[in-house]
Design a protein that fits this description.
It is globular and about 115 Å long. The longest helix has 88 residues. It is built from 19 helices and ten strands. Strands 1-2-3-5-4 form a five-stranded antiparallel β-sheet. Strand 8 and strand 9 form a beta hairpin. Keywords: Membrane, Transmembrane, Transmembrane helix.
Length: 635
């Protein structure tokens, strides 16, 4: 009886303990773990002194999730999470939640906010981002951010002033997220939390990868940084905050992207003509130039210099490597002898000539590309090995087909370049119909070639599904198809960017002609006329009164026809981009896996080589011991 009573008491205590444990868990979860809409996390009560409320409805649902140790409120301070960055997902897409400033900075800002005189300088603070821009260009950035906040009227202006004071990155990304630049996408904000696309791990995490893979990343970084100078037809982006932590590798797109855009300078491209490029100048030794320098001359190699000097060059202080430089450390001697890589990087970092640095940039791209594709020369003692491919005849036929696809893409690229040239010639004349016919012919050729190449790639992709993905032949097919698909995508993206830029140039000409003729239109009215395709909207009755007006009308109609054709061309490209995006995404994981396995194989070969040497030494020792025992037994 006593035993049964003790047993019941023990069970009761266990049940009480479980209840207390569960209650404690929910209490901890409520008070110590952030949920997306926690008041301490989004700080919605501080609005409109915040980044906006456009995503707050989503934050209340399960579409927004937090993950990682940062969501524990215990770590929500400058000692553990100094960058105030959190990880999670938005509608199952990986995103990063940023508060854009340290906790101490927000506290200082709130104290300052109580004193109105503290913000007298805010109205002109955008000059650090846009140092030499007119009111119209500045208003584009202001309006893009205001539209992203979800506020109206005065509240949106307060939100803008707050963002200018705290961190300019949301303003930059709200204006540039759809510009096809290698930067993250800005979704919006809820309170003091901005939401950005998670583009991958930063380059610090790749410091100990194989040299071949780091060469590939260095090439992609150079391309991405140079695109900030050249990709956008309206503006030039100078990036001075060069740091390995500010560059990330997007594995799906196989592209290096640039994050942390707080310290950039953006200049309008039309301020400079080709004659403004200074081919011989000296940069300052610091990472940042005086803003007046950006306004006086076009610096086409500035971003490339930053990469050569602060990322690729050997570090002066080895303990600073992870933060700033020497990404291509431990260059194999054979590669350095063959390509003279160290000297080229040094020249790229130190030369004072723009033209020379751009030539070195092209050389670096070619060298790094060949290193990334080749296994040859990675190790001094490496020996060649023969892979037994499943069917030599099948691979030969496949490679012939790949060569034909590559030739078609080269031809497509050539036609795209010719189209760009014709588009520029068209802007100089409206009377010569030859340019219009030539452009139509070349656009039709681009359309035909792109669909032909796309169909051939899809055919090869379907054929590859019948092969073993782990076999040598399957890996060869997978990598070749991926490379060509990405090449086609890049060519078509370039064509699309050029087409959109030409449309904008034609539109500007129409605006100028209308203003000169006294028939000015608002932007909405002009877009409506262009979409309708009806020329009467430009005002025939008043513009046909004089001969000069007729010429003006002809010029406007010519540009309108160009724009209608361009819009049709852009629509036709849309479906192809979707197909290419699917192919690139599907094949990206396989290629990354192959690269990882190759780098691991190199390590295994080195370890095996060392083990063989040790085994041979042990074998020799064993023979000596055996001979010694034999002599002892004989005696």
């Amino acid at each position: 009886m006593q035993f049964r009573f003790r047993r019941l008491c023990r069970i009761r205590w266990i049940l009480v303990f479980i209840i207390v444990l569960v209650s404690s868990f929910f209490a901890i979860n409520k008070w110590l773990i952030y949920t997306p809409f926690s008041s301490d996390f989004v700080e919605l009560e501080t609005c409109p002194a915040c980044f906006g409320i456009s995503l707050c409805d989503l934050f209340k649902t399960k579409d927004v999730q937090l993950s990682g140790w940062e969501r524990f409120s215990f770590f929500n301070n400058d000692q553990f999470n100094i960058k105030n960055i959190y990880y999670g997902s938005l509608k199952n897409q990986p995103v990063i939640f940023k508060k854009m400033a340290h906790h101490s900075e927000w506290i200082s800002f709130d104290i300052c906010r109580q004193n109105k005189s503290c913000h007298n300088h805010v109205g002109t603070s955008l000059t650090t981002l846009l140092p030499c821009s007119d009111h119209l260009f500045v208003s584009k950035f202001r309006q893009a951010f205001i539209n992203s906040t979800g506020f109206d009227g005065l509240e949106s202006e307060i939100s803008l002033d707050t963002t200018i004071e705290i961190n300019l990155e949301p303003i930059v990304l709200s204006a540039l997220s759809n510009s096809d630049l290698p930067i993250p996408f800005y979704y919006g904000a809820c309170g003091r939390v901005g939401v950005f696309s998670n583009e991958g791990s930063n380059l610090v995490s790749y410091l100990q990868y194989s040299f071949r893979f780091r060469a590939f990343l260095a090439r992609e970084l150079l391309i991405s940084m140079h695109q900030l100078n050249t990709r956008n037809s309206d503006m030039i982006v100078y990036y001075g905050d060069v740091n390995l932590e500010n560059f990330v590798y997007n594995q799906n797109e196989r592209r290096v992207k640039i994050i942390d855009l707080e310290y950039v300078n953006i200049v309008e491209r039309h301020l400079f003509s080709a004659t403004n490029v200074n081919s011989d100048y000296k940069h300052s030794q610091g990472k940042q130039l005086n803003s007046n320098v950006y306004c006086r001359r076009y610096l086409p190699d500035y971003n490339v210099e930053q990469v050569c000097r602060y990322v690729l060059s050997p570090s002066n202080e080895t303990n600073q490597r992870e933060m700033s430089s020497d990404f291509l450390h431990s260059i194999p001697a054979s590669i350095n002898r063959r390509w003279n890589l160290t000297n080229i990087i040094s020249a790229c970092a130190q030369t004072g000539s723009t033209s020379e640095r751009l030539v070195l940039y092209e050389q670096l791209l070619k060298i790094l590309s060949q290193i990334a594709r080749s296994h040859e020369g990675l190790h001094e003692d490496s020996t060649s090995a023969t892979i037994n491919i499943d069917s030599e005849l099948d691979v030969t036929d496949f490679l012939k087909e790949i060569d034909s696809i590559r030739l078609l893409i080269d031809k497509l690229d050539e036609v795209v370049q010719n189209v760009t040239k014709v588009q520029m010639d068209m802007l100089k004349s409206t009377e010569n119909s030859k340019f219009g016919k030539d452009l139509d012919t070349k656009n039709e050729e681009i359309k035909k070639l792109s669909y032909q190449v796309s169909a051939m790639l899809k055919k090869q992709e379907q054929a590859n599904e019948t092969h073993d993905k782990q076999s040598a032949q399957g890996r060869i097919r997978e990598s070749q198809i991926f490379v060509l698909t990405r090449r086609l995508r890049d060519v078509m993206i370039e064509h699309n960017v050029n087409t959109v830029a030409h449309r904008e140039r034609c539109k500007k000409i129409i605006v100028r002609e209308l203003n000169l003729s006294g028939q000015g239109k608002t932007n909405d009215e002009l877009e409506q006329i262009l979409e309708s395709g009806i020329s009467e909207g430009f005002g025939y009755s008043s513009m046909l009164d004089i001969q000069q007006a007729k010429l003006t009308l002809n010029a406007i109609e010519a540009r309108q026809r160009d724009i209608i054709k361009l819009e049709n061309c852009i629509k036709e490209l849309h479906n192809m981009f979707l197909d290419l995006a699917i192919l690139v995404t599907d094949q990206g994981e396989m290629i990354d896996c192959i690269q990882h396995n190759v780098s691991k194989t190199i390590d295994y070969v080195e370890a095996a080589h060392e083990n063989i040497n040790i085994a041979e030494q042990n074998k020799n020792k064993a023979n000596k011991v055996r001979q010694f025992y034999f002599l002892q037994i004989s005696n």
